[in-house]
Every structure is written in C-alpha cells, then in structure tokens.
Amino acid sequence: MESRSGSAAQGRPVGRGPKVCAAVLAATLAELADVGYARLTVEAVAQRAGVHKTTVYRRWKDREALVVDALTDHVAADMPIPDTGDVATDLRALARLLVTHLTVTHLGVVATMFSDAARLPEIADVRRRFFADRFRRATPLVTRAVERGQLPQGTDPALLLKSLIAPVYLRLLVTSEPLDDAVADHAAEITLAAARAGVFRSTKVSDPD
Amino acid sequence: MESRSGSAAQGRPVGRGPKVCAAVLAATLAELADVGYARLTVEAVAQRAGVHKTTVYRRWKDREALVVDALTDHVAADMPIPDTGDVATDLRALARLLVTHLTVTHLGVVATMFSDAARLPEIADVRRRFFADRFRRATPLVTRAVERGQLPQGTDPALLLKSLIAPVYLRLLVTSEPLDDAVADHAAEITLAAARAGVFRSTKVSDPD
C-alpha cells in the first residue's frame, strides 16, 4: 500500500485517507479504459469514485498527475519483481508478467494510452514518467544479477529492461501478432544473449575485460 | 518501378498507365498524413490525384488494398536493402534507414497508422500485411549473412528483423525517447549478439553445432 501515497500525497492528511485514495485511483483506471486519456476528466473520476472533485484536487494537482499515479500504483501492485537467484529465470518471469499485464489485466487502459499518443502532446510526458518509474522498480533484478556475476559489470539496467520489453510491445503495437509466453521467453533470450555479450554496458563504466 | 504494379494491377492495362498509378499512390500517402487512416476515403484520394474514383476502383478493390500498396511501394522506394558483405554493417545500415524513414520521411503517415490502431479492427490486418512484406524484402540480408558464415545456420530472417526494429519502435511508440543513429546502432548490436548466440534459429531446422 505504500505506493498509494504517491507523488502528490506528500504525507499531508487529506480526504478520508487511504480508502478514498484507492477509490480515486481505481476510478481513474476504469475511466481510462472506458473513455480513454483524451476524454478523461477529474469530474468523471470523482463522480465514479463517489467523492467531491475538490477531494481529488487536494491530492493531485491535475489529471496528468492522477493518471501517472493510477498507472504507477497499478503496475506496482500487479508486477512484483522476480528474484529467483537466476537472471535467466528472472527475465523470463518479468517478460511473462508484462505479457499477462498487457493482455489480461488492463488491455483497455494500455490500448488507450498508446492510441492517443500521436494526437496529444502531453501523453508523451505521462508515458515517459510512467516507464521511468517501471524501469526504476525493476532495476534491482539487474543489479542483483551483476552482483552474482551472472551479467557483466557495468550493465545498464534501463538499457537491458528496454530490450526485454521491446519485442513484446512490437507485437502489441506494430505487427499485431498475438502475445503469449513464447514471445516473453524469446524476448528474455534475446536480452540475455545481448547482455552477456556486453551490449548493455554503460559507456561511462570502465571495462574490466 | 516494378513494385508499383502491386497486388491489384495484375498486368491488366487500366487507366492511363504507370503515371496514374504513381499519382494515386502518392495521393494516398498524402491523405494518410493529412487525415489519417480512419478518415481516408477513395473519393478524396481520387480528387487529390486528379482522377475519377472509378479509375482507382479499377485498380484497387478497396481502400485497404490501396493503403497497403501505397505503403509497400513507398517502403520499397525508400528502403534499399544494404548489401556490404558484412552483416554488422548491413544491420546498422538497415536500422538507420528505418530511423530516417520514421523520423524524416513520413512521420505523419507512421503516426496515423499507429494512433488509430486501437480503434479500428481492420488496421491490424493492414499493418500485418505491410510488415510481412517488409520482412520478406529484407530477408536476403539475413540469408546472405548465413551463406557467408557470419550468422548461424537456420537463423530465421523474420525473427532477426523483428528484433532489429523492436527497440526503434519502442522509442517511437512507447517511451517517447528521441530516435537517432545511436538507437539504430544499439538495436543492431543487440540483434547481432542474439543472432550469434543462436537465439533466432528456427526450431524446425536441425542444429549443426
């Protein structure tokens, strides 16, 4: 639940506490799925959550902040970071979680976020912050693998994680092929081979090889 | 010019020949960039090309066929397949061509194709055919590298090419990061490392290693 406090709560006691917060975030996701980002309003979210609009604005400065918190919170709840001790297993599990997340859990939300992308300038920033948060959360998977000696020193977690998710999003958004565990496993294989070859080493890090 | 004959011309003499065909395809791209796929009509394309609607319908059975031909023709003209004798150089060059294509040449067309994706069921099939054609055209790059012994026997061209373009589209459509030659080179590095590790070998092909 700690992620629910988000960027806007800042420890200030508002509304009727965590329950209201959770209701507003859930209402935001439901609105995103129903009407899309472009037509989402704080008014409709408040109505759906059964709170006053001012209650929402006390916690979130605008609808962008609300959407980012809702998506961030949702991802945090849905996607635990695998930690099995083996980087290959961890990467496969993370990619499979992403596939499940995209196909089963909230396809409506995802489709809306991307379909409106070209029309709305502000969506780019929302998505950028959303993915930055996701990459930050998954970073320990990579750093632990480096510490265990399973990946080269200096492997950049964000570069590696982008490689992991790229084939999954290519299918979802570009080639319109089905998403399944096979594509997740394939993405993990590509990424692991590239990581072991040193492709994701940050150029700022000296190379011990 | 041979690609201009496309799937619908079928050797049948129609209209006033290749010039009309080229004008209609160019008008289709311009309409795509201006109004998007969802609102593109054969009427508007015909008007823009300065021909009668029936001239268009004599050559293309519907607007989907027209759009696929226009995009296919455009890609064929814009993206020659590199053939330098070195697979690493070829992959970098192909990825850089894609970046240029997406950012400079026809960003409007590309954005439209993807922004409408979630709303229109038929767009998925248009895109699928479009990419199938692109992968088919680039296949010799991979088969030549296999023949030269630069890639493992049984490397699947489509799997490899999808890996090559995935990081580029991730930036364009997901993380909203800038597209440049660095991301192209990085995509080529990832793909080459994975290819050399045998990740793209078709499971149907016996493994000589």
UniProtKB/TrEMBL annotation, chains A, B:
Pfam hit, one: TetR_N
Boundaries of every HTH tetR-type domain copy: 18-78
DNA-binding region positions on the chain: 41-60
Recorded superkingdom: Bacteria
InterPro entries: Homeodomain-like_sf, HTH-type_TetR-like_transc_reg, HTH_TetR, Tet_transcr_reg_TetR-rel_C_sf, TetR_C
Keywords assigned: DNA-binding, Transcription, Transcription regulation
PANTHER family, sorted: HTH-TYPE TRANSCRIPTIONAL REGULATOR RUTR, TETR-FAMILY TRANSCRIPTIONAL REGULATOR
Protein name (Swiss-Prot/TrEMBL): Transcriptional regulator, TetR family
Organism: Streptoalloteichus tenebrarius (strain ATCC 17920 / DSM 40477 / JCM 4838 / CBS 697.72 / NBRC 16177 / NCIMB 11028 / NRRL B-12390 / A12253. 1 / ISP 5477) (Streptomyces tenebrarius)
